[in-house]
TrEMBL record:
GO cellular component, one term: endoplasmic reticulum membrane
Keyword check for Nucleotide-binding: yes
Pfam families: SRPRB (PF09439)
Annotated compartments: Endoplasmic reticulum membrane
Gene Ontology molecular function: GTP binding
Protein name (Swiss-Prot/TrEMBL): Signal recognition particle receptor subunit beta
Lineage: Eukaryota, Metazoa, Ecdysozoa, Arthropoda, Crustacea
Length: 156
């Protein structure tokens, strides 16, 4: 091999090394961009579940429990046609969003559907005085609340 060939070969080796570093750099940049996009979409899509839904039939005492917890006093209430929303501060735990879902059968499912994805928990309120009279309605609402509409229709 001549001196000219060795010089030419040395130049090609140096260019190949730079090409490898360029490829590695581009792959690293693409990987970081993909990671940042993934983290952005993941954080944006995450739902904060800090709500507690109070659900039950009409006149079961949901609004009374809501007012006792939020306002620390009992209020006289009537059948709710819209939801009540308040913030319940719990010492050393933070704040919870308390939602009183109306019990009227025409509107309860619509309000429950709008809040169930943000709920950390569901409290089903029963009136023990009228439970024997409303047992069928309670069973239906519990099954529907849990998402078992087909099962309820099969049982009936």
């Amino acid at each position: 091999m001549s001196k000219k060939d060795e010089t030419f070969r040395g130049v090609l080796d140096a260019e190949e090394k730079h090409a490898h570093w360029g490829t590695i750099g581009v792959a690293l940049i693409v990987g970081l961009i993909t990671l940042f996009i993934f983290l952005f979409v993941w954080r944006k899509g995450r739902v904060s579940r800090r709500g507690i839904c109070l659900v039950g039939l009409c006149e079961s005492g949901k609004t009374l429990i809501f007012s006792q917890l939020i306002y620390k006093k009992a209020v006289e209430s009537f059948t709710s046609m819209k939801e009540n929303v308040g913030v319940l501060d719990i010492a050393n735990k933070g704040a919870l969003k308390l939602i009183d879902i109306p019990g009227h059968e025409r509107v309860r499912q619509r309000f429950f559907d709008s809040y169930k994805n943000t709920a950390r928990g569901i409290v089903f309120v029963l009136d023990s005085f009228s439970l024997n009279k409303d047992i069928r309605d309670v069973a239906e609402y519990v099954l529907i609340t849990k998402g078992h509409r087909k099962l309820y229709k099969t049982i009936l």
